[in-house]
Predict the structure.
Amino acid sequence: MISQDSKHGGFGWDQVDPFDPKDPHLWMKLEHLGHYLFAADFLKPYKPDLVADISCGLGYGTEELCRVAKAVIGIDSNQLMADLASQRYRDKSIRFFVKNLDDQDLAPDIKEESLSAVVSFETLEHLADPHHAVSQFSKALRPGGFLICSVPNVLSEPRTVACLPRNRCHKQLFDFGSLSRLVQSHHMPVVYRLGQSWSNRLLKREQQLFSAQLIRQRLSDNPAVHTPEMIRLLSYLLAYPTVEDVDGSYSLLLVAQKLDKED
């Protein structure tokens, strides 16, 4: 599903590394890191015991979740990704596993009702059967546990002439209604609906100004912007998920909470 992109040393559009200075996709880096900053900040007051990061990629977000959880499990469908993440974070309280969510269960590596939270960003659109994945998330969550997930907004998804997703890895298209119905059908009512409209507006404004030759340099062209400190700062300032103007965001994020058994 994921192929290495030799142009910038990364792993393609869906697997940018925010802390890789050679990766020029600044706005995507900010949005992807912004997802995890929000998830860690949201979960911190709940002092989670065990969190699963589904589609963890290279593990940078899994490490963010380690700031607030006693232990984290990283799951990815790509063996190379999981191996690289394991090497990067071998001294952390993280375990990495390889799973294909289209046809594999989270058990036995993750026991039923063992998780305080499931974090899964930009995952469900890649699956032929997202219901199977969400059912696995629900089974693994303890009652009261949280699902924090995101998908591309159908309103922003580029299409082919045949109206299919231009990104061939995307097998599903979601708006908030279809995403929330999917999650809620597995006993996880939606608590918050969020987006990243600020970064989307600023990216489009930058593109307009650059095309009109009113600015000579894009923000991403400045090497100083790609330091870890600046990436983190800009992710908070420009790409931190909010409840404002959700439909103006490329990504739709939601927080859902698993019902107690008696509910």
Q: What stands out?
A: Residues 17-257 form a domain with the Rossmann fold fold (CATH 3.40.50.150). The CA atoms of residues 122 and 151 lie 5 Å apart. The beta strands are 50-54, 71-76, 94-98, 115-121, 141-152, 190-195, 251-257. The longest strand covers residues 141-152.
